[in-house]
Design brief:
By secondary structure, this protein is mainly beta. It has one helix spanning 15-18; strands at 23-26, 32-38, 48-60, 63-71, 79-80, 89-90. It contains 1 helix and 6 strands, in the order αββββββ. The N and C termini lie far apart (49 Å).
Length: 91
């Protein structure tokens, strides 16, 4: 079977073409960064529709160790971005 028409090829998309770019909040201390992902563009940051990831960079004898944590250990899209600093994070 010969495939010659472009419409016969599967359509593929990368994540950035499907979901909006994350909100990024880098703390002044330089070691903590929060990433907020929402599946819908222009969503209010006061609504529980975000997946939040907290990145912590720690110095360990000259090496940087990076950990990623989630609110209550959950990777769901059910957190409020505005509450990111008051949430409890675990891996």
């Amino acid at each position: 079977m010969q495939v010659t028409k472009p419409e016969q090829f599967p359509v593929t998309k990368n994540m950035s073409s499907v979901y909006p770019e994350p909100i990024i909040h880098k703390k002044v201390d330089g070691t903590t960064t929060y990433y907020g992902y929402c599946m819908y563009p222009n969503q209010s940051t006061a609504e529980a529709m975000f997946k939040i990831i907290k990145q912590v960079d720690a110095d360990n004898a000259g090496d940087t160790i990076t950990t990623f944590e989630y609110p209550n250990g959950s990777r769901g899209y059910d957190f409020i971005w505005d509450d990111r600093e008051s949430l409890s994070y675990t891996r």
